[in-house]
Amino acid sequence: MIAVLAFPLGALGWSLAEYLIHRFDGHGMRGRTPFSKEHLAHHRDPRTFAATWKKVLVAVAVTALLFPLVSFVSGPVFAGGFTAGFVVMYATYEIIHRRIHTHAPIGAYGRWARHHHLLHHHQDPAFNHGVTSPLWDIVFRTHLVRDVVEVPRRRAP
User: Fold this and answer.
1) Are 122 and 151 in contact (CB under 8 A)?
2) How far apart are CA 52 and CA 60, in angstroms?
3) Residue-wise pLDDT tens digits, 93-150
4) Rounded Cα–Cα distance for residues 26 and 71 (Å)
5) Average pLDDT in the 6-12 region?
6) Alpha carbon separation from 80 to 14, 55, 65, 93, 106 (Å, rounded)
7) Considering just the CA atoms, what is the radius of gyration of the chain in Å?
8) Among residues of the chain, what percentage have pLDDT more than 90?
9) Residue 150 in contact with residue 123, Cβ under 8 Å?
10) CB burial class (10 A; 0-12, 13-18, 19+) of residue 155?
11) Residue 157's pLDDT band (boundaries 50, 70, 90)?
12) pTM for the structure as a whole
């Protein structure tokens, strides 16, 4: 039962990590770290994505570090559920982010996610760091809401 409760906490943990990594490494480091360099290249050309092997390597490394760390603090059962939620949400984020830039949105969430993320890309990169959720943008007051996103034709998804 505790692993089932830990899974959504792991997913929530990923959403916070997504926000913090995007805001403080992706943008805050201004190209001084490998992730920041790749992220800024993605902003210059939204069709640019890091290689899948790099993402898998990061997921394996995070899992290898996260499980024992969380296990030490709260036990292996909770750690298993938390780590699974974290990794599943990370994979979900990668799929959603790529689809935002490469496919027409499906449903209300797809339309919202594309609008929210394209505001980040084309209106003000200091806002909307959460790709999959506005939660942390709301908490940290970096949530930008506009009715229309003006996307340059050459950068349109």
Assistant:
1) yes
2) 12
3) 999 999 999 999 999 999 999 999 999 998 999 999 999 999 999 999 999 999 988 8
4) 29
5) 98
6) 14, 21, 12, 20, 32
7) 16
8) 88
9) yes
10) middle
11) confident
12) 0.92
DSSP readout, 73-97? HH-HHHHHHHHHHHHHHHHHHHHHH
Pair 144, 128: CB distance under 8 Å: yes
Cβ atoms 40, 31 nearer than 8 A: yes
- Angle between helix axes 2-20 and 76-102 (nearest 10 degrees) is 50
Record the tokens describing residue 112, joined without a space: 């919202």
Is residue 40 left, alpha or beta, with left meaning phi > 0 and alpha meaning psi from -120 to 50?
A: alpha
Distances 68 to 45, 90, 107, 153 between C-alpha atoms, Å: 37, 18, 38, 47
Question: For helices 52-74 and 76-102, what crossing angle results, to 10°?
Answer: 150
Contact, 3 vs 79, CB < 8 A? no
Q: For residue 43, how many other CB atoms are within 10 A of its CB?
A: 15
